[in-house]
Amino acid sequence: MPGENLSRDEARERAALLSVDGYEVSLDVRSAVGDTEGEGPLTFRSVTTIRFRCNEPGASSFADLIAPSVTAVSLNGKDLDPSEVFDGTRIALEDLAADNELVVDAQCAYSRTGEGLHRFVDPEDGEVYLYTQYEPADARRVFANFEQPDLKAPYRFEVRAPEEWTVWSNGAGTEHEGVWRFAETKPISTYITCVVAGPYHYVTDSYERELPDGTRLEIPLGALCRKGLAKHFDADDVFLVTKQGLDFFHEHFDYPYPFGKYDQAFVPEYNLGAMENPGLVTFREEYIFRGKVTQASYEARANVILHEMAHMWFGDLVTMEWWDDLWLKESFADFMGSFSLVGATRFTDGWITFANRRKAWAYRADQLPSTHPVTADIRDLQDAKLNFDGITYAKGASVLKQLVAYVGRDAFLEGARRYFKRHAYGNTRLGDLLAVLEETSGRDMGAWARSWLQTAGVNTLTPQVILDAEGRVAELAVVQEAVEAYPELRPHRVAIGLYRRSEVGALERYARAEVDVDGPRTLVAELAGQDAPELVLVNDDDLTYCKIRFDATSLATLREHLAALTDPLARALCWSALWNLTRDALLPARDFVDLVLRFAGRETDIGVLQMLHAWAESALVHYAAPAWRPSGARALAEGALAELRQAEPGSEHQLAWARFFASLASDPGDLDLLAGLLDGTEEIPGLAVDQELRWAFLEPLATHGAAGEQRLDEELTRDDTASGERHHVRCLAARPSAAVKAAAWERVVESDSLSNALVEATIAGFVRPSQRELLAPYTEKYFAEIERVWRERSIQIGVVVVRGLFPALRDSPQTLEAADAWLAAHEQAAPALRRLVLEERDDLARALRGQACDAAAGPR
Asked: Residues near 51 by Cβ (< 8 Å), separated by ≥ 6?
């Protein structure tokens, strides 16, 4: 990765010097098909014309390009020697005029890592598919440009492709003899330009709406996927959510969708969930479901569709100036995804998912040594790449939810409307948003921003209850705490709920107060005199961002009556708080597992249930004392099988329990049951074992030596698709053999032959919790190799390898010491690499504390 970085200071200097009038980009991708054998990377021709101005004639600057070779460079009609001006990542521009034209003719490389122009060959039919992915700075792998978000410009794309292909870009396109020309875009940033090309399956629809001025807005809609997935593609549901979202945002934003058409492409081997390219949103194709999934999966897809749609305004129309203010788009899109999901679609419980799943991501990120304010200090592009994290997304969204409670929904939305109209097609900083919110709310946003956006860390809120002689609440207070490293005590607008059991045993809220918590201790006078509660729930209704704790009475109530909570959001908040107690080594892992075994079977919200399954497995693998793990694993597997057999036949709960049971299966009897379900000799009424479930059952069989290479090859023959290939690779690497692990390590660490998707699949198979001893030799190898991997591989692959292969399963003080030794010996390593190792090291230290807590709890 040397030479590819761009610093914030360099970007600011260039933005102060240059302004861009427009791009013309011509790509020839016919080389993607046919005979592609040869030395070196497979390339395509890229010709770029940039027209730009310089406010200091005679000054020097540079354009960005990452390419194997450059054929020609012309600046203001003068031919330059590529060998003199191009160093592999930048094109030097000397003696600039007031008005300039740069023409670059280059051979750019197709990608196998999902960065730049990704080329995928479908194993099912041999068809080739292309798509681009750029964020934060990979457009320079496809065409020469000024790769920073504040040098916006309009673009005209032209793509020459095989005649049987279709090509899409941000604007509407027309084709003549294999050449596709696209309408000029509005001024946008480089990272949201896009090209998708290949024999994709394409479905169309349209959206219409009458605008307040009486005009009619019509938006052509399209949705596309690989031909092999067409039979699974429920485009009607995609269009339904799309139209509901467009209605919602038009109603609340009062700014018509500004980018013409709205295509949505589901593409293979995608690194992200999705990307908000205006007019051509790209998604990972796993959102097309090949088998039966729960409603949580459909909800997740709808949320992502709406998240990306919100970006059309927050991010595309108005863009942050530099990646410091990445939250100006991602936090808003994350919040708006749930806000519109609940307000416009059938998924009216979206805030439950947000509280239970999204916030868990934020809480983890905010307690790592790499935590940072929502408005981060982004020094360069490597920093930017790693800041697409739980703080920028989920914490930022949680803070915005708190902001809505603080200023009011109407003031918040009116602020957004003014923000769009004032800064359309421009770039902004934090102060630009705060200015409009101050106008609409009448509040001083500076103090709020300093507490919530410019400080790191998560506060903890704990109730204190004192009863009088009659058993009523004499005093109720909320105690706020912060860790020493991040001592900020924030103002919180919270609801406090009091709960007790009814005559029929239901745990229900009987009193609620919404108050401002500020400082170390806040009295809640509104609840004085109430009957004694069995449960006090701070942050009821999930208005703020905090970790909540329980007083002793409340915790005892949850231990016995958690499933009796009738409100699903309150129940989800309690589960989340109990999980945070487990991660913080305040609740033994075996106690959390016990709660899941006793109460998860009565959980009605399928998304919460699936999260509980993930947390229970994580508690067992990472936080349980090693001596207790075998009995804990047995208890979880037996409990999962019992719930599977008791679940309503054909229900999504049955499917969730089937997948959970498979993930835990290790006993010979469990493995025999899975094998029988695969070959038809066993049956669980109502459970349809489709292809995706077949692979889920095969994985534990491979992991425990009950399915060898031949059996896995047979399954690949049955499912000879891209998805089947990923499953096959993962299962092969999961086999319990030293030779298998060595081969998997070599393919990922020593070789660069695998695509991004197959790297991830191989790592997932390599790292199996039941194979800790097999993985022991790789601790030393990991620390010996990661700096080389980071230096030689793309940042995407570097992140996947450094995170995925960290020896977390060698959870001993010796592994912690090895991590500390590497960090001490590599103080000059790339800051982004050190951050990754620090994060993994912190997770390991947290796991060891949890194990000590669990061991101290003794047998249950």
From this structure: 20, 21, 22, 23, 99, 100, 101
For 107, the 3-state DSSP assignment is: strand
**How confident is the model at residue 768, as a pLDDT?**
97
């060891």: which residue's tokens?
848
Beta bridge partners of 167: 197
Tell me whether the omega of the peptide bond preceding residue 136 falls within 30 degrees of 0, making it cis: yes
Q: Under a CB-based contact definition with an 8 Å cutoff, are residues 790 and 798 in contact?
A: yes
Could you give the C-alpha distances from 414 to 418, 420, 433, 438, 442, in angstroms and in order?
Answer: 6, 10, 12, 11, 12
**Strand pairing category for 116-121 and 128-133:** antiparallel
Residue among 636, 606, 641 nearest 624 (CA): 636
Task: Please provide residue 468's backbone torsions phi and psi, each rounded to the nearest 5 degrees.
Answer: -90, -175
What is the rounded end-to-end Cα distance, in angstroms, of the chain?
Answer: 51
pLDDT > 70? residue 1: no
Sign of the CA dihedral running 812, 815, 816, 821: positive
- Nearest Cα neighbor of 467 from 533, 391, 546 is 533
For 540-569, the pLDDT digits (tens) are: 999 999 999 999 999 999 999 999 999 999
Contact 110, 132 (CB under 8 A): no
Nearest to 4 by CA among 270, 388, 380, 326: 380
Report the C-alpha gap between 612 and 606 in whole angstroms.
Answer: 10
Edge-to-edge strands, sheet with 492-501: 507-517, 492-501, 535-540
User: HSE on the CB side for 90, CA within 13 Å?
Assistant: 13
Q: Has 792 been annotated as catalytic?
A: no
CA dist., res. 740 & res. 748, Å (int):
13
Decide if pLDDT at 602 tops 60. yes
Distance CA 625, CA 621 (A): 9
Residue 643: what pLDDT?
98
Rounded distance between C-alpha atoms, residue 40 and residue 757, angstroms: 21
**Residue 405: per-residue pLDDT:** 87
CA distance 230 to 232: 5
pTM equals 0.96
3-state secondary structure 483-501: CCCCCCCCCEEEEEEEEEE
Which one is catalytic: 4, 127, 276, 308?
A: 308
Query: What is the pLDDT averaged over residues 666-691?
Result: 97
**Angstrom distance (rounded) from CA 774 to CA 106:** 47
279 in Cβ contact with 259 (< 8 Å):
yes
pLDDT over 50 (residue 251): yes
Answer whether 628's CB lies under 8 Å from 590's CB: yes
CA distance 342 to 102: 48
Structure tokens at 211: 């605008």
Contact 259, 155 (CB under 8 A): no
Strands 173-176 and 201-210: unpaired
pLDDT on residue 212: 87
Q: Which amino acid is at 754?
A: L
Residue indicated by tokens 């860390």:
457
Helix (H) or strand (E) holding 522: strand 521-523
Local structure of 783: helix, strand or coil: helix
Report angle CA 674, 680, 681 to the nearest 5 degrees.
80
The identity of residue 544, as a single letter, is T
State the pLDDT confidence band at 501, using cuts at 50, 70 and 90.
Answer: very high
What are the pLDDT digits (tens) for 176-201? 999 999 999 999 999 999 999 999 99
Q: What is the secondary structure of 112-176 as a DSSP string?
A: SSSSEEEEEE-TTT--EEEEEE-TTT-GGGTS-B--STTS-B-EEEEEE--TT-EEEESS-EEEE
Amino acid identity, position 195: V
